Amino acid sequence: MGSVELQNKYVAMYDALKSIIAISQQRVIDPIPDELFLSNINFFVKAYLINICTYLESYLQEVAFQLAKRINEKIVSASIPQNYVHWRLATKNFKDENFNYSYLELAVDAKTISANLSANIYKTIELFRNLGVDLTASADFQACKGLISPVVTKRNNIIHHNDNASDVTFHDLLAHIDNFILYLSAINAVVPEN
Description:
By secondary structure, the protein is an all-alpha fold. It has one domain (3-72, 108-190). The chain is 71% helix and 0% strand. Helix 1 packs antiparallel against helix 3 and helix 3 runs parallel beside helix 8 (170-190). The mean pLDDT is 92.
């Protein structure tokens, strides 16, 4: 799946979540509100906020993993001897047991990507830096990151400290999703397709 298709997949997921949130909001503000939603607004807001960030993490992991696969495919297709790379990058102590008479391959599995990535802006920047992508060079990324970071921090506080979400409304969630979609687009514009 190409990066545009991947982005569209997550935008569709966010659009579906927006519809659910809008219906939830309507059930609370109806002339005769739905008691389940009215009595559990905080629960629903927390759940939706967690979903917003989970979608982002999933998107970032897929994008990073696809990029890592493409990088490794280029390395493998170049048929570079491992000994040459080790010799040129090793600072000292190049010993006989370090020789490997095969071609270089630097595959990264999805678990490694997952372990090094979260919705946290700085972990995202760091992992993509390791993949050769400078997200901070993008003005669009820079414009979005200040909108994303507080939402991720709020989600983390909910998960790790059982904070409530009484300061977040359904309307806020809808605005957050719009910002997250812009953020996906900013990242997608920077990550190379090939």
